[in-house]
Amino acid sequence: MSFEAHLSREMVGSERLRVTILAASFALIALMVILFTWLFRDSPVPFLRSPDALRGILHAMGGLIAYELWVRFMLGHMMRRGKAPPAALRYLNALIETSLPSLLVVMLTREFEPPAVLLGPAVFLYAVFIVLSTLRLDFALSAFTGLVAVQLRRKIRRAFRAQQERERVISAFGQQVSPQIVDELLKQGPEIVSRRSFVCVMFMDIRNFTPLVENRSPEEIVALQNEVFGTAVEVVNRHHGVINQFLGDGFMATFGAPISSGNDCSNALAAARELISKVKVRVGIGLHAGEAVTGNVGSAERKQYSVTGNVVILASRIEQLNKDFDSQLLVSSEVLERCAGHGATALGPVHVKGREQPIEIYKVA
């Protein structure tokens, strides 16, 4: 047997040993997953989050084991025929195998926190693949395996860092502004371009707030505000609205910007009705719809997402009219004409402060 033929046979045999070790490694991982799932079966915090997670991981591990065993079989078949696998096929197999840890890491992040996965044993499989690549007895192929593994690991780390940065931004700003604005900031960057939009604006005010808190301590006042505004945030967000700012004893919310659901007036009216039923204090709410300019307003040092236009001023004026009509929810005709089955009572043309022409006002509650 010539030296080249003997070397080729040794390379194929070494390659079979390598894939056998990989198949055994995947089988060991599957057994460890089964063992830990069984050990923590009665724990308040289970090893896996979802009941189907074990099945999914085992199916994946089974597929990886089957692939390596198939490669081992094909290599044995070639060895018996005295042939060596083509160079292109060996590189393709190296690329596929080196991508396997990435698949495992992605699967594990669905069950565990990403930082824990990145620091866990799954990531060290890249090192295992690099070390085992020496059994290929081909320097170029081993270097290719190492390069692919390093690049894949870097890409995964960058992806997780981006996800962590997104979570950090949401955590930092999610309690200050609506999640919709946070998402818009993440999509567009720090500058949300001003644009004209049709919006429905809501103003809500806690009635008789001054006498209500006259004999309360500062802590009790804050507790009352947190209770009212906590309910308001939940209700407005669920109806696809945005609370733009809190105003001490009230707030301003917008439906239709930065994202429109297509039925913003109906959403605003439904949110207003729910607020009246859920909030434990008496409130006054005003709704008006129209064109407004939405986007960031401010300086280079500090910007704020803002909604500007006459629609904002009129919504505030309509809310104040609740005192005159002893009502809790007043809306303009611009809102009601876009809502079905509102059951409102017309109050006729009403003059509002700062406006010469009267506007049609309706009492809903």
Residue share in helix: 55-70%
CATH structural fold name of the largest domain: Alpha-Beta Plaits
- Identify low-pLDDT runs: none
Separate helix tally: 13
CATH architecture of the largest domain: 2-Layer Sandwich
CATH homolog superfamily of the largest domain: Nucleotide cyclase, GGDEF domain
| Sheet with the most strands, sense and barrel status | 8 strands, mixed
Order of helices and strands: HHHHHHHEHHEEHEEHHEHEE
Number of structural domains: 2
Beta-strand residue percentage: 15-25%
Radius of gyration: 32 Å
Main CATH class of the largest domain: Alpha Beta
What's the pLDDT, averaged over the residues? 76
**Alpha carbon gap, first and last residue:** 98 Å
Write a brief structural summary:
The protein has 365 residues and is α+β, with helices and mostly antiparallel strands. It contains 13 helices and 8 strands.
Give me the secondary-structure topology.
Elements: H1 3-39, H2 53-80, H3 87-109, H4 114-118, H5 125-132, H6 139-173, H7 179-188, E1 195-206, H8 209-212, H9 218-238, E2 241-246, E3 250-255, H10 264-278, E4 283-298, E5 303-308, H11 310-320, H12 322-325, E6 329-332, H13 333-336, E7 345-350, E8 359-363
Parallel strand pairs: 4-6
Antiparallel strand pairs: 1-3, 1-4, 2-3, 4-5, 6-8, 7-8
